[in-house]
Specification:
- The chain is mostly helical and 110 residues long.
- The model has no long low-confidence stretch (mean pLDDT 92).
- Helix 3 runs antiparallel to helix 4 and helix 6 runs antiparallel to helix 7.
- The protein is globular and about 35 Å long.
- The protein is 76% helix and 0% strand.
Amino acid sequence: MTKEEVLNQFATDFSDPGSEKSGEYLREHVLRRAERIVQSDRSGLVEAMRDWLQRRSLPHTLLAVAVAQEARLTELVPDLHSLRDDILASRFLRDTQEDLVDQALAVLEP
């Protein structure tokens, strides 16, 4: 599966009417889908989440952090460090949200 195919699968979660009403609903569906994808196409999922991390847009970037943590995508550690740096430099999000990235890094780094 290519990165684009993986992203297209996630697009269905974003178009779900329940996702517009609840961020938790969207998060739950994205994590469930990621769990299935990682078993069959880890590299496609990694590239899709790297795309979301680099977008620096909500909710994609924060969902990518959650997927990286839950699916144990250690390949994204450098991308997460870059995101953390941008948060601390106030280039993206608020510094109070660095905790989300720190939690993911704590799981992914030895």
